[in-house]
Structure formats: structure tokens, C-alpha cells
Design brief:
- With 248 residues, this protein is of the alpha+beta class.
- It contains 10 helices and 4 strands, in the order ααβαβαααβαβααα.
- It has helices at 3-9, 24-35, 54-64, 83-86, 91-101, 104-127, 142-148, 190-210, 220-229, 236-242; strands at 46-51, 74-81, 131-135, 155-164.
- It has a 4-stranded antiparallel sheet, sandwiched between helices.
- The radius of gyration is 20 Å and the shape is globular.
- 26% of the residues are buried.
- InterPro entries: Flavin_OxRdtase_Frp, Nitroreductase, Nitroreductase-like.
- This is Oxygen-insensitive NADPH nitroreductase.
């Protein structure tokens, strides 16, 4: 097994970082790796904002209710961005582009481009011996994030990525077995999928019972029912449409 695969398979979310700022060379390496991610139609429909302003970090930490959003080596904010792709269009050209800018397909394209870039950044950071944690909870107040960073139309803040020198060493968390997510030629039969999930539930129960901290009795399927039964961030959809995305 090569070192790249080993890095990927050893991924853990790091939520405690040492008080060491990343150097410019580290940041540039991570951002360069992000820029090399696959992209649809050469659109590169994403932007990254490096957050160094402690006031803005504090705002994001309060929105997320997570101290490590403020206490890390560096924080990146990943955005879906079609503003840059349209900025040189004249008024008539922009008018003809707008239906495509507003359609669901291009919202997906920009979101996927941002996610692919972020995962490249994450793997690059981990290959340098750093830890990372994705921060979707910035969307707890997506409008405030938008206003804090003065984002123009066609730019949406999607998630953050905290990076730094790890100050703890959590266990790797179990993942779904291959049989529960990799299928060939057709989607798997419901009964077979159910069997795989039952077995995974047992793995998760053992993990929660035996891990070194925050022990509890739980299963993956019960977690998913809880997560998907609670209404969450209902303002995100209208906000996305207000930024001229996902209207068609």
C-alpha cells in the first residue's frame, strides 16, 4: 500500500489543535492541491477564503458553536462560485447566461467543484502531518457568513475546513462496509442492504461502547432516523435562491 492510500485510510476528524499557525509554504501547498481537483467543463466554479482575521474567526466559531473553528492553524472557507465565470459578460451576454446560472444543474456543478477541491486540500494537509475537520455548521447562519465575507451574487458559502497540528489522537471511526455502498450494475436489493446495515449497527454499537471518551449506546440507523427527522436550516434553500442559484 502506498503512502497516499495510507493517508486517506487513516483519516480522522481533528477537533483539538496546537497553538501553531500554518506557514505560508504549507498554506500554498494545500491551496495548490485544491486547485488541481477535477472540475466540470473547466469551470473551476469554487473559491476559497483563508480566514486570518480573528474577529471573523470568532463570528464563525459562534455560528458553529465549535471552539476549534477559532482555535486552529488555519481556516479555509469553501464557496460555490459562478460570479467569476460571469464577470466579463456584458449586460446582454449576462442576460442570456442568467437562466443557466440559475438552474439546478449549475448549482450542483459549483457545489461539487468546491467539494472536490476541499477534499484535495484535506488530503494534502493530512499528507503534511496536519489534521483537518470539515465545518458544515457555518450554515447555521448562512446569511451572516455571506455578509461577514461580502460575498457577491452567485457565490455561496458551503463549509469550512479547519487545519492545524493535532493536539489529540482520536480513533478512526468505522465506515460502512463496501457491500452497503458499492454495487455493480444495479442498486442493491433492499433486504440485502438491510442485512448489511444490521451488521454495521453491531460494529457501531461496539465502537461507541469501547471508545476512550463519550461512550454511549447507539447505532448508525438510529442516528440517521434522528438526524433526518429533525427540521434543520430551513433558511438555506431561500438563501441559495436569493443568490441566483437553484431557481430553475
Amino acid at each position: 500500500m502506498n503512502s497516499t492510500i495510507e493517508t486517506i485510510l487513516q483519516h480522522r476528524s481533528i477537533r483539538k489543535f496546537k497553538a501553531e499557525k500554518l506557514g505560508d509554504e504549507q498554506i500554498n501547498t494545500i491551496v495548490d492541491a485544491a486547485s488541481r481537483a477535477s472540475t466540470s467543463s473547466y469551470m473551476m466554479a469554487f473559491s476559497i477564503i483563508g480566514v486570518k482575521d480573528q474577529r471573523k474567526k470568532k463570528i464563525l466559531a459562534e455560528i458553529s458553536n465549535q471552539p476549534y473553528v477559532q482555535e486552529n492553524g488555519h481556516l479555509l472557507l469553501f464557496c460555490a462560485d459562478l460570479y467569476r465565470n460571469s464577470i466579463h459578460a456584458d449586460d446582454k451576454q449576462y442576460e442570456s447566461m442568467l437562466p443557466n446560472l440559475e438552474n439546478t444543474e449549475h448549482f450542483l456543478v459549483a457545489s461539487i467543484d468546491a467539494a472536490l477541491a476541499a477534499q484535495n486540500a484535506a488530503i494534502a494537509a493530512e499528507s503534511l502531518g496536519l489534521g483537518i475537520c470539515y465545518i458544515g455548521s457555518i450554515r447555521n447562519n448562512i446569511q451572516l457568513v455571506n455578509d461577514t465575507f461580502d460575498l457577491p451574487q452567485h457565490v455561496i458559502p458551503l463549509f469550512g475546513l479547519a487545519i492545524g497540528v493535532p493536539n489529540h489522537s482520536p480513533e478512526t471511526k468505522p465506515r460502512l462496509p463496501k457491500e452497503a455502498f458499492y454495487f455493480e450494475d444495479n442498486y442493491v436489493d433492499k433486504s440485502k442492504l438491510g442485512t448489511e446495515l444490521e451488521e454495521f449497527d453491531q460494529t457501531i454499537k461496539q465502537y461507541y461502547e469501547n471508545r476512550s471518551s463519550n461512550k454511549r449506546i447507539d447505532s448508525w440507523t438510529k442516528q440517521m432516523v434522528r438526524v433526518l427527522s429533525n427540521e434543520k436550516r430551513t433558511d438555506v434553500g431561500p438563501f441559495i435562491q436569493s443568490k441566483q442559484y437553484n431557481r430553475r
